[in-house]
Amino acid sequence: MSRGFSEQEKKEIKFKLISAFETALKTQTIHKISIDDLIYEAGISKGSFYSFYETKELLFVDVVHHVQNRMKENLYVIIQTEKEEPKKALKNMIKSMYEHLLLNPWILKLTSVENERTMRRLPIEVRNNLIEQDSYDIEEMLNHLGIESSIPVNEISSALRTLLFSIPNKELIGPDFEKGIMLLIDGFIDRVVGDNN
Prior knowledge:
By secondary structure, this protein is mainly α. It has ten helices and no strands. InterPro entries: Homeodomain-like_sf, HTH-type_Tx_Regulator, HTH_TetR.
């Protein structure tokens, strides 16, 4: 990192870059977001940008982590404030994820062809870490709820992504999408939790 910045300034600049990128993702694709736009928002030079991130794609990874961490904080609030049965708490957590994704629709576009190109530009270990983090987060969530499932965590994570990534097709599916997604969530929870909890 640049020697001209204090540790506090480094944190603030990274936060500004992450926030600027996240804001830009609401209206633009990754490919159309320029480093020049991001450094303007953060108030730093291009050379300083490269002392924080080697590429725009690596900054994107931090944006994804930032959003995931914010979502996890919301989920832990549900765990702490709702002293309910595990099934009901899990349902409320999945509903919270669903609502979070509705507020951040760019996340749901991560499977698009353009974003696939972005992911391919990342080092393989970074790509694998993003996928593994999902499974780790799901496992941690189930542990906090005291849920033991006979289904492997990677399958639970994959099923949950499949459910949540149906959101972009909401209009295509029709007016009963909300009811349908809740039915699928109930079935998902019944299968994951089973009779053991």
